[in-house]
Design brief:
- It is built from seven helices and nine strands.
- With about 250 residues, it is α/β, with parallel strands linked by helices.
- The protein has a single domain, classed as TIM Barrel.
- The chain has a nine-stranded mixed β-sheet with strand order 3-1-2-4-5-6-7-8-9.
- Helix 1 runs parallel beside helix 2.
- The chain is globular.
- The structure holds S-adenosylmethionine (SAM), the ligand Nc1nc2[nH]cc(C(=O)O)c2c(=O)[nH]1, iron/sulfur cluster and magnesium ion.
- Magnesium ion binds next to loops.
- Magnesium ion (MG) binds next to loops.
- GO terms for molecular function: 4 iron, 4 sulfur cluster binding; carbon-nitrogen lyase activity; magnesium ion binding; S-adenosyl-L-methionine binding.
């Protein structure tokens, strides 16, 4: 069954998830970088960042439908792993993500959800790794990988939902992880962090705000990582590497 253009799924398939890939690696991003982790990547997204490093979950979604039972068994087959990351695409689009997270939490796994922060769901989440999307992520006709620019307006309208961001920050241990393309992104990050602080009851420390260089390949990161590290130092935010890209470049299943 296909994921439709918005990435929403047919009600019939509740209890199953569209899985693009499931693999064992090291967490490459954020405060748990370096931790051995099983990744479950769902397909389908409500946004279309021009730089999306998971093209086959957003711009051109591909997947197998798998029952939550099957996914849990596949996670269990990696004996060494105590951590699971649920990512996508946008994993919180899918109702069945709640069941999967609750099952993994009950089984004793530490669960991280990688989310664009536009959707709140109540589930077992040990770390909400929230990556709100900046204006520089918008797929303008010049930047759209399909060259059409059809998604620019929808992307721009949907990319920030303050209520969802505040609900995620208030419900879960969280980090705000911004993809930085250049220094022009910083004023927008500062403003958005302040808006989240105003909307949420929980204190958001500067050390919970992470700057991540844009780049899906080593070559692309060579152009961004040092400048982003300097911006993090200037501003007092945290820098996060993209360890998996440094180690394995853009190989699938890493
Ligand atoms: C593919 S997304 C899936 C989860 C969710 N849709 C989101 O955007 O947070 C996983 C992470 O990769 C980041 N990301 C995607 N493409 C990137 C790129 N070209 N450079 C740096 N980070 C990127 C996202 O911002 C997010 O933190
Ligand atoms: N190793 C590795 N770490 C990651 N952290 C977040 C990822 C993601 O795509 O959400 C990711 C990923 O794709 N690979
Ligand atoms: S929100 Fe995440 S999955 Fe969706 S297009 Fe952007 S980076 Fe890709
Ligand atoms: Mg990734």
């Amino acid at each position: 069954m296909p994921v439709d253009a918005d990435g929403t799924t047919d009600a019939e398939t509740e209890g199953a998830l569209p899985i693009n890939e499931l693999f064992y690696s090291l967490q490459g991003e954020g405060r748990l970088a370096g931790v051995p982790t099983v990744f479950v990547r769902t397909s389908g997204c409500n946004l279309r960042c021009w730089f999306c490093d998971s093209y086959h979950t957003s711009w051109e979604p591909t997947h197998d439908w798998q029952d939550v039972d099957e996914i849990v068994a596949a996670v269990d087959s990696y004996d060494q792993a105590e951590h699971v990351v649920l990512t996508g695409g946008e994993p919180l689009l899918h109702e069945a993500s709640v069941d999967l997270l609750n099952r993994l939490g009950d089984a004793g796994y530490h669960t991280t959800v990688e989310t664009n922060g536009t959707i709140f769901r109540d589930a077992h989440v040990d770390l909400a790794s929230i990556s709100p999307k900046l204006q520089s992520s918008t797929p303008t006709p010049e930047k759209d990988p399909t060259g059409e620019g059809k998604w620019a307006e929808r992307h721009d309208q949907r990319r920030v939902d303050l209520d969802a961001l505040a609900a995620l920050v208030d419900a879960y241990e969280s980090q705000l992880k911004f993809v930085v393309t250049d220094a022009d992104d910083l004023p927008e990050i500062d403003r958005l962090v302040e808006r989240v602080r105003d909307a949420a009851a929980t204190t958001v420390h500067d050390s919970d705000v992470l700057l991540m260089p844009e780049g899906a390949t080593r070559e692309a990161l060579d152009e961004t990582r040092n400048a982003v590290a300097e911006l993090a130092m200037d501003r007092g935010y945290r820098y996060t590497p993209r360890l998996h890209v440094d180690l394995w470049n853009d190989a699938p299943g890493t």
